[in-house]
Amino acid sequence: MDRRDFIKTTGGLILTVGSGTYAFRILSATGVSVSDTDNPLIGKKWGMVIDLTKCRPDCTDCLTACRTENNVSFHGDKRWDNHWIRKVKIEGEVGHTKVEKMVPLLCNHCDNPPCAQVCPVKATYKRDDGIVIVDHHRCIGCRYCMIACPYNARQFNFKNDEDWPNEERPKRSHGVAEACNLCAHRLDVGQMPACVEACQKCGANAILVGDLNDPVSEINRITSTLSVKRIREDLGTEPKVYYLGL
Amino acid sequence: MKINIGNNKTAVFVAIPILIILILILYGVISNVVAIGSEPPQVLLERPDSKYDKCVRDTEYMRFHHWELLREIRENVVRYGKRGEEDINKCKECHTSRVNFCDQCHNAVSMSPDCFGCHNYP
Asked: Are residues B64 and B33 in the same domain?
């Protein structure tokens, strides 16, 4: 081997090994900083079923429960009131009969959330258990998520509320966007969300929250066998809030 | 060498503001240097009928790095849903008063963290 060949071979060898290691490191990186065994959220997928046949049109217990649990600001002025869950009257015609329905609307916790995609600071994101949540520490209040959300589920904090009904839970300061977080703080410790408890307490039992990944759960039975609908399924956002009797 | 800055009147108009600014800067520096030697902020480390014997970390760590710990807890709770024993709500079980505890140091070093706009601390 002469000098020229030696240099060629060595250079080639170094290039191959070096780029190989580099490529392996890039390809094997998953982008998850917390180890999977350490993360309690992996494996779950929270979903909600709202049974409109059981929901009472004039009942607002879930709205009040949500507001007191999460300190959602309420001034009595619709310009500044926020609603994590709200009831909307839907009118339509089936055949020749007019149909009117009161539908509770909330954040749909989409599997493919547009709000998380547009967030420029990654304040809105999908947790590993499927809950779409806002990190209010990081939110800069740009309101892109409010524009991106096709369900109008997001609100902006225009004004601080003086009331503090649940002092264990934080409020939101002026200038951040907020939406339902499916009471993640309660689900983490094994409790049901405030709206579900309120619905059970008033006797209607129309809201059900459960793990969609659990094959024997009640919510899985309902969503797989009965005729459930999701709002605007055609948009491809894959909402996880299912409606019965919509 | 003579520096030409116009007539005497202009020189006065330039010199007086510069002097005032210099005095203000000097005052700031000197008052800070004097303040270093003065009394440190008095923090009440009260523990009224608490179930805990001691803080989650030792005092030196908490004094200089508590915000790092709080940030770590925040990351765990908000991002990964790990709600463990360490919780911002548990600080107030021992340190009951924000005025006597948090605000003492924050005021001394003119820090105004915005934790308390959203998190309740009596």
From this structure: no
